[in-house]
Amino acid sequence: xxxxxxxxxxxxxxxxxxxxxxxxxxxxxxxxxxxxxxxxxxxxxxxxxxxxxxxxxxxxxxxxxxxxxxxxxxxxxxxxxxxxxxxxxxxxxxxxxxxxxxxxxxxxxxxxxxxxxxxxxxxxxxxxxxxxxxxxxxxxxxxxxxxxxxxxxxxxxxxxxxxxxxxxxxxxxxxxxxxxxxxxxxxxxxxxxxxxxxxxxxxxxxxxxxxxxxxxxxxxxxxxxxxxxxxxxxxxxxxxxxxxxxxxxxxxxxxxxxxxxxxxxxxxxxxxxxxxxxxxxxxxxxxxxxxxxxxxxxxxxxxxxxxxxxxxxxxxxxxxxxxxxxxxxxxxxxxxxxxxxxxxxxxxxxxxxxxxxxxxxxxxxxxxxxxxxxxxxxxxxxxxxxxxxxxxxx
Amino acid sequence: xxxxxxxxxxxxxxxxxxxxxxxxxxxxxxxxxxxxxxxxxxxxxxxxxxxxxxxxxxxxxxxxxxxxxxxxxxxxxxxxxxxxxxxxxxxxxxxx
Lengths: 394, 96
Description:
A: alpha+beta, Alpha-Beta Plaits, Ubiquitin-like (UB roll), 9 helices, B: 52% strand
């Protein structure tokens, strides 16, 4: 019999005295009583253990063999429970502990507000209190988190989303504030001045006093639209605003090779598979394939994942594609054309969209070392406005 | 009559090739080192002390000598003994 089962049934350790101990043991075995750990002790006594329910059937056997028993120890659940029954306060304490644990765990201990920046935490807590969210509140008294967050959202319109989450004894209110459009920066009073040397082609003053006329030449730094209006006694300072377009001259140096080298795929490809362990990769397949002199490589690495952890085991798919260099020859005319396009693009790059090229003129063109060298003059109409703050008290 | 039956039993055990412990009621002993012995088909305890144990078996007495002997379990036909077993003797009927 398993020791655990014996424990649940309960057993006793007995001391046996008398002359016919062997006969008693034989008799007990015949009656199918479970005896175990029978030890012979000095002074003519033996010790053994017996199941509690067999203990009560011992008496006739003892009488027959004129042996005597004496209970030494009691083991097992029946005795333990019996003992427990006499200790009422222990049971009361256990129950009290269980209920207290249950009660404590069904109370909100902490209310946390997360994610608010402009809305004050105290305000949110105030609003939450109206919904019954506060420390020491019973969890079962609260509405469901979904309806709580809906109610809070109604009360705090400046938040675009509010989430309520209960984790154990902590309640978290997560706030996402609605983004308000940014206030326009206050403009300083200013002049508008020329950013480069140019000839004015167009001037429109929205605010301020235009200082230059169309077709006049301005240098860098010249005031175009002044922020000071009115004559001296009634002079006022404003934020000058307007559009000033001017013609600006640029000279570009261009060089274009006559032979164009281009990478292109040949259509040949190979695939390789690696197994990765840690930071070592072992090639598994793709050994018997052509080797390429020129190729572009693309590899995709994948790792095994378990829950949120990435395991250090994975594989890499690598695909190689053979490339070749194509040489394309151009004549001087084509090269010059391409050069012009490149130059135009580089001038217009980074400029406002109303910029346009009004005229272009090749100043110089020569072929040397397989390249076409050119020098081109561009006339570009562009905005030449630059701000210059007016410092008061000057 | 008893002798006849005994002879018959012996004869059948030979013919059918059954192990003698099944047909002849002989004890079957399993011993693990000198620490533990299990005896089936015993006929009851005759004497028991911590050094000396006598067990009735078919046609004789089984004598165990050792020290710190302890009966682990006992039932009508099976007994298992633990302790340090030094000697195991088979006494036939008559010369106890």
